[in-house]
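STRUCTURE:
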């Protein structure tokens, strides 16, 4: 009787264990939670995970000749909160060396920020019409992997973040042997942003044939479902974004302030609850009588975002001289613009939190530059006079 009871108990236990298996958590690729380094739904490496608060990844490059240089990819708290996705993944394969495209200003402009690559790519494709298949943005737009075709060319901050992950040992150097093109053109008609392991920041000419391409895509926590008609879905979304952008421009031309949601629905990166009113006011009260265009709107947003970064001591090392030239804060002809940029980074935030305040500080620094030049010239003149009299 005891043997029969023990056997019955064991059978019941075995049956219970087989009938109630533990449910395994979904992987990142299957729509579960992701961490940096995971394989995403598109088969790529996850390199950005949205979180709360400010975001910053930095790497200090030690150079005996140039001194220490800090390279960063960052977002303010508001910028990160405004992102409409949870993750970014970089494609497992890409295009080898080839050009970025042809010369010419990009219709609508481009941004450097994390989260701006999709709109950058769309703007580049509108401008680079008829360019051969080695156009970097066109390659990224047409890339497909694991059933997903919603890929695009990374912005400069996104591309730099990928390279920083390699430098910090998160990704293998074997995964990214080539320098890569970004979708950020810095408002220049002839160059584009570039990043490589041996040069984290560069702006080669668009016809340079050395850089390669790695597309990226954004996604959120959701069950992965094979798209029924990915092309049709993508086209509908792009059409909706274009309509929202037209509505945004129309609102400004009617001298009305649009909502933050309309900015977000228009895929305008960098506009947050803390700066939307200032951006709107700047556009509505502009001195020119010319109608507001999407290009002017994006340049204004870019100007405010750059000033916000510059006034944030935790992230202003990721603001570069060319950006300050692009927004009109420093003249391109200023021979000491690199020195002025470094001095601006050292100022307290209250002196830099508006474009006007930043301009005042630049004017002070330019006077210092002129004073230094005058002193140097005076010394050289005295030396030359002494030599001539001896």
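SEQUENCE:
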């Amino acid at each position: 009787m005891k043997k029969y009871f023990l056997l019955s108990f064991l059978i019941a236990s075995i049956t219970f264990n087989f009938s109630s298996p533990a449910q395994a958590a979904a992987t990142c690729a299957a729509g579960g939670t992701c961490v940096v380094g995971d394989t995403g739904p598109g088969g790529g490496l996850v390199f950005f995970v949205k979180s709360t608060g400010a975001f910053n990844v930095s790497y200090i490059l030690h150079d005996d000749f140039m001194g220490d240089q800090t390279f960063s990819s960052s977002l303010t708290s508001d910028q990160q909160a405004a992102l409409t996705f949870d993750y970014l993944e970089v494609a497992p394969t890409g295009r080898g060396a080839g050009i970025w495209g042809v010369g010419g200003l990009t219709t609508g402009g481009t941004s450097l920020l994390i989260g701006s690559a999709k709109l950058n790519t769309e703007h580049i494709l509108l401008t680079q019409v008829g360019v051969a298949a080695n156009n970097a943005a066109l390659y990224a737009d047409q890339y497909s992997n694991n059933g997903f075709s919603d890929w695009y060319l990374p912005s400069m901050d996104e591309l730099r973040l990928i390279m920083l992950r390699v430098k910090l040992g998160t990704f293998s150097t074997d995964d990214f042997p080539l320098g890569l093109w970004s979708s950020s053109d810095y408002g220049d008609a002839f160059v584009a942003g570039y990043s490589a392991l041996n040069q984290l920041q560069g702006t080669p000419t668009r016809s340079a044939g050395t850089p390669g391409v790695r597309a990226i895509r954004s996604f959120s926590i959701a069950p992965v479902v094979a798209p029924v008609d990915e092309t049709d879905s993508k086209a509908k979304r792009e059409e909706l974004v274009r309509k929202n952008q037209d509505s945004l421009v129309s609102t400004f031309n009617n001298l009305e302030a649009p909502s933050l949601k309309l900015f977000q629905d228009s895929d305008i990166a960098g506009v947050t609850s803390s700066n939307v009113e200032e951006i709107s006011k700047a556009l509505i009260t502009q001195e020119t009588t010319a109608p507001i265009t999407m290009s002017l709107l994006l340049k204004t947003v870019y100007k405010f975002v750059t000033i916000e970064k510059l006034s944030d001591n935790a992230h202003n090392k990721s603001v570069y001289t060319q950006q300050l030239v692009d927004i009109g804060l420093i003249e391109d002809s200023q021979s000491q613009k690199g020195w002025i940029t470094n001095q601006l980074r050292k100022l307290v935030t209250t002196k830099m939190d508006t474009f006007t305040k930043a301009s005042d500080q630049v004017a002070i620094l330019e006077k210092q530059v002129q004073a230094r030049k005058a002193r140097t010239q005076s010394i050289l003149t005295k030396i030359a006079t002494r030599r001539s009299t001896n």
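REMARK: Residues 355-389 form the longest helix (35 residues).
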